[in-house]
Amino acid sequence: MIPQESSRDSEMVQNCSIRIRVRPYADLARFFPGEGRVRVVEAPAGSTVGDLLDAHGLDESRRLTLGVNDVLASRATKLRDGDTLEVLVPMSGGMGAS
């Protein structure tokens, strides 16, 4: 028996795009349109984190810490419809010499 295709699957095939929730931290919010802490963006099916970041003006020269669905990720991580991408600027600091 062949499983029936859901209307959501059919819509994705027709549109060939996925929807990703993006949580940009600090000044990175300016790279993603919208309001609020979580922005929803569309990307072509098969996109990686790097593809999405490049499309929003964040190329490889920018040092970022990335997470997909609460797991540390890289620019090569493949994205799936409904994923949540967190984009942070790496932080440093702590106790230094005075």
Summary keywords:
alpha+beta, Ubiquitin-like (UB roll), single chain, 2 helices
Structure description:
The protein has 98 residues and is of the alpha+beta class. It has a single domain (7-88), classed as Roll (Ubiquitin-like (UB roll)), CATH 3.10.20. Helices cover 16% and strands 27% of the residues. It has helices at 7-15, 49-55; strands spanning 17-24, 39-44, 65-68, 71-73, 84-88. Strands 2-1-5-3-4 form a five-stranded mixed beta sheet. The chain is globular, with a radius of gyration of 16 Å. The model has no long low-confidence stretch (mean pLDDT 87).
Number of helices: 2
What spatial form do the alpha-carbon principal axes imply? globular
Predict the CATH topology.
Ubiquitin-like (UB roll)
- Relative helix content: 10-25%
Could you give the distance between the termini? 72 Å
Topology:
Layout: H1 7-15, E1 17-24, E2 39-44, H2 49-55, E3 65-68, E4 71-73, E5 84-88
Parallel strand pairs: 1-5
Antiparallel strand pairs: 1-2, 3-4, 3-5
In short:
With 98 residues, this protein is of the alpha+beta class. The chain has helices at 7-15, 49-55, and strands at 17-24, 39-44, 65-68, 71-73, 84-88.
